[in-house]
Amino acid sequence: MSLPAELSRQLDLMVEERGLPSRSQLIAELIRNELAQHGATMRPEDMLAGTITLVYRGDMGRVRHQLAQTQAEYLKEVISSQHVFLEDDQSLEVLLVQGPAVRLRDLCDALRKVRGVQQLRLFTTTALLPPLHEQERGAAQTGDKVA
Known about the structure:
By secondary structure, the chain is of the alpha+beta class. The chain has 5 helices and 4 strands. 45% of the residues lie in helices and 27% in strands.
């Protein structure tokens, strides 16, 4: 792979600043991120796991309530959330999510509509969380409880 001299210099500087052992490791990370992003765009039914990070401010009670209502509409996709208060009446919330790419995108769009949300970013990966609950095939079909 060949790169323009300036781009190669910037890449080497980034490798050094991050303390990585090689340029190859950084390039592999960048490619993985782009492939996950591309998959989310081109294959909307692909299952993805990831995080949604949002920063918001405003009437905290109203904003948090609207965000919680939105998350409840995507109960299958939102695995967990973490909230912290920031300076200047801001909050940071991180959601752990998993589901079809199109549902995660729809969730992000719905969260962006909440007045007070200032920043939102979805980071995805094609690696998935293991199933949280597994039932035996026969029990699931007959309704019997699994011991």
